[in-house]
Specification:
One of its GO terms (molecular function) is lipid binding. This is ACO12 thioesterase. Pfam families: START. Residues 16-166 form the START domain. This protein is an alpha+beta fold. The protein has a single domain (1-196), classed as Alpha-D-Glucose-1,6-Bisphosphate, Chain A, domain 4. It contains four helices and ten strands; from the N terminus they run H-E-E-E-H-E-E-E-E-E-E-E-H-H. A hairpin with an 8-residue loop joins strand 5 (86-93) and strand 6 (102-111).
Length: 197
């Protein structure tokens, strides 16, 4: 478990630091970036939020609050509180047209910054849990690497960066966005800002 949580944080930090991010869209307080490496597509959503970084961290690290701003989350249940900084959740998400609803078993690892210039981190990856085998009514899907980095701008504002390394399980929720026929990433980002503020 210690290795899993360490590699969860390390994978997100590594993804965030990769060179070659391309900006694809800019709104007032939201920027969307993509990164392609071979067959792997990742995206980053950067949000400017008028709340202190520690408040954003405490709200975003509690995934049971996620349904309040992310309409892709139908249910979210804590399966295991591994430690104060680690929880395993079972999430179900709404079906896309003509598809079976998907579910995910994820480890969420949270870390406070060690030094002032470092971000708060909330890292997410799929894990296997014997207590939660795949269910027949859901298509079990995988998150390779996702999560938030939260940087303090001032005592009352912060920059929240959301990252996701896209897998086939996540792709249906994004493809319409990336081709321009849907605005779900922007809409979700704006809902996230509204929720945090």
């Amino acid at each position: 478990q210690a290795y899993l949580s360490y590699s969860n944080i390390a994978a997100l930090t590594h993804l965030a630091r990769k060179p070659g991010w391309d900006i694809t869209k800019t709104l007032d307080n939201v920027k969307i970036w993509t990164h392609e490496e071979g067959a792997v597509l990742s995206f980053k959503v950067e949000m400017q939020v008028k709340v202190p970084s520690h408040d954003a961290f405490s709200l975003l690290s509690d995934f049971s609050l996620r349904q309040r701003w992310d309409r892709h989350f139908l249910t979210c249940e804590v399966l295991q509180a591994v430690s104060e900084e680690e929880k395993i959740y079972h999430i179900t998400s709404a079906p896309m047209t003509g598809q079976q609803p998907r579910d995910f078993v994820i480890l969420v690892s949270q870390r406070q910054p060690c030094r002032p210039q470092e971000p708060y981190t909330v890292a997410v990856r799929s894990v296997t849990l014997k207590a939660m085998p795949p269910l027949p009514e859901f298509c079990r899907s995988e998150i390779l690497c996702a999560g938030f980095q939260i940087y303090s701008n001032s005592s009352s504002s912060c920059t929240v960066c959301y990252f996701n390394q896209v897998t086939s399980g996540v792709m249906p929720y994004l493809s319409a966005n990336l081709t321009g026929s849907s605005k779900s990433i922007e809409d979700t980002a704006l809902e996230c800002i509204k929720f945090l503020e």
